[in-house]
Specification:
mainly alpha
Length: 232
């Protein structure tokens, strides 16, 4: 009754569980490397479906207008719909599947707890303990996801020069990264950029750091800072 009363949430829960399943079979290719590539695409397509359903939930009244598009781009679900479309037809990259896997796992765990609560407060205690441990590490998981989002930017450039990526992919991914940086709901991308900058500046200011390395890092920090969008 609980599942039928929340059909859209249940559909997203099932698609997230399927995303976790396909992502796990890509990361751990138990069925062979050829099958792993197909699970990569299935995971991203399932994530695109989840993101589209979530975006519909957040913005139910679709309008073909610039204002609606601007509002949609503020939603994290729109960001990850774009993310799935960027990588679904590209060469499989293990790093790109971790954000999809972990976000799906976190959201699926939250809804699974609601399902267990609907069954009874004492149902499946072992599963409840696992969900509690996952929830306790949520902040670390979100930081890891943000780290993946950041380091996928140079990875897309490397893929381009190695012949495994398209010319447009780095530019589209840069747009995705600026959306994540400006996210209202998830500040971890901004936080990680700040933390990485502090760590790098601390290391290069040590007397043992070569001057040319210091200059190169300072120039890179200045360039990346200029590319960063303005956050309200």
């Amino acid at each position: 009754q609980f599942l039928m009363a929340n059909k859209l949430e249940t559909a997203m829960w099932i698609s997230r569980l399927f995303t976790v399943y396909c992502s796990a079979l890509f990361v751990l290719p138990l069925l062979g490397l050829h099958e792993a590539a197909s699970f990569y695409q299935r995971a991203l397509l399932a994530n695109a479906l989840t993101s589209a359903l979530r975006l519909h939930q957040r913005l139910p009244h679709f309008q073909l207008s610039r204002a609606f598009l601007a509002q949609a781009l503020l939603e994290d679900s729109c960001h990850y719909l774009l993310y799935s479309l960027i990588f679904v037809n590209s060469y499989p990259v293990t790093m790109s599947i971790f954000p999809v896997l972990l976000f799906s796992l976190l959201h699926a765990a939250t809804y699974t707890k609601k399902v267990l609560d609907a069954r009874g407060s004492n149902s499946l205690p072992f599963l409840r303990n696992l969900l509690e441990k996952l929830n306790a590490n949520q902040q670390n998981i979100l930081k890891f996801i943000a780290c993946n989002e950041i380091f996928l930017m140079p990875a897309t450039v490397f893929m381009l020069f190695s012949g495994q990526g398209s010319l447009l992919q780095p530019f589209i991914y840069y747009r995705f990264l600026t959306l994540r940086y400006s996210s209202r709901r998830n500040p971890y991308c901004r936080t990680l950029f700040t933390e990485l900058r502090i760590v790098v500046e601390h290391l290069i200011m040590k007397p043992s750091c070569p001057v040319f390395v210091r200059r190169l890092c300072l120039s890179s920090i200045s360039f990346i800072s200029r590319l960063a969008p303005t956050v309200a």
